[in-house]
Design a protein that fits this description.
There is one protein chain. By secondary structure, the chain is of the alpha+beta class. The protein is built from 15 helices and eleven strands. The protein has three domains: about 180 residues, BirA Bifunctional Protein, domain 2, CATH 3.30.930; about 140 residues, Helix Hairpins (Orthogonal Bundle); about 90 residues, no CATH class. The chain has a five-stranded antiparallel beta sheet, covered by helices on one side. It has a two-stranded parallel ribbon with strand order 1-11. A hairpin with a 6-residue loop joins strand 4 and strand 5. It is rod-shaped.
Length: about 525
Amino acid sequence: MDRNVKTGGHFRPCNVGSVEAHNERRPEYLESVKKAGFKLYFFEELSKDNESFVNLDERYRGKTVAQIFDEMKHLYMEKFGQKPCLEEKTITNKKTGKTRKVSGWSPIREMAVPIKKDTTIKDFDYLKKWLERHGLSVLRIDIHKDEGHLNEDTGEREMNYHAHVVVDFLNKETGKTIKLNSEKMSEMQTIIAISLDMERGEPKADTGLPYLTHQQLRLLHRLEDDLKKNVKKTEEELAGKNHELTAKKDELNAVSLELKNAKHEFDLVSQALKQAETRVKGLTSMVNNLEDQIRQLKKQRTELADKVRAGEVSLDQMKSQERKLQQEIHLMEEKLADKSGKLAVAEAQLQKCMSQFEQVLANSKILAANATKEYDKIKAHAAAAEQHIKNEDKSGMVERKDKQLSTRDAVISSLWPQVPAALKVIVERTTNASAKQFTSRQAIDVENALSASPLSRQDAAQSLMSLAQREFDDNRTWSGWIQSTAKEVMEIANKVHPLSPFLLQQSTGGQGGGASHITDFTDWDGKKKKGLQ
């Protein structure tokens, strides 16, 4: 499994209007981002490594997510006789006065899942089958291996490999959305980890620290002063805050861009609607005028026949004028047929524009509501991180970090987790009058602590004896026994102990001898020394 990045996912309402354009990196989407003056959050040359799956089931084939969403709305109206509520609303209990928020109707949802660099669409087959067993259909999966940013300090790319999974949550029989309880959601996290061969994110219930033994507590008290001197960790945390701030600002820019794109789309559709309305109005006026002219010409033809009967016009004159009138009527009828055809086309276009306008308006309302909440949340987070960076200093961070360690088990686990076992065998060896030297098992525990220590092996040996001093004081251990154990520990450190060849083969630790950041320990004989002789 990939231990560097944990995986999991949580569903959120899908932005049905732009999911394909964003996830497929369509040219029009890229152009809109660039024209808006925003910096791309992905490397364009890596977009070729992206991969997509689109559900070709008969229900979805050839349809966009927005079209599928429209069909779902029609189904809802057929089932319940009303339009679905797409916006979050607040409901007040009339008896208690308490309020609760009810999410808007969201039959299509999306989740972002962290992945590995070599993850493929096929790796999601297990997850798709699990979702199908729970009545859910995957509409599309888009793997993004192009997102990330350039680290200004190292000049290296820091990638954010992830996949977008868009899922149909609608029960076609009832018209209601399918619910996954907390138990199923937790199970899904495990399914995702299994599918992608990655480590599952830890549940909140499992993140508590274990109970500490008295030996661990004594050891951790002695490491407290040295923890405060370790500012390197503090600087890394401060750098992490800067990175977090940058990421939140990027998210803020993305939300702003999404709102701007939605407004641009709304303006275009509104303009097209106005143009269609103007054209229909003009063509309607033309058709009415032509119909009036034809009626006038026919009236003139009738009046001409009356004049012939009254003897006011000769038969030859009547025939000549009637031919002219008939020609004019024929010409006008041709024009009328042409304009009527164009009017029918224009009316159809107007109807289409009105439908598009209603869809864009509905999508814009949903987007505006969701984006406003997201914008406020990200803005507050970014402001908090920025203020944190302004106010923070190294000593202040160390003090706060120290206070946050309500249980200090995290300290020993990160600095030197092999110490408790080594201390135990050192105390056993020293307080046992009949013991002449470490047993093989005891020596291995000491070697593991020495080889895993961030100190030099000699400093680590001295520190182990210093940390054991409290036990020696508690048991009033004879100094001769202590010196004998100290000498043997130093022999192991210098790799001259009789068991050293065996120990070097059996040790589970590293090489040791790293930079010393645990210093100034009281030595095993009560004095401060740089090393043991």
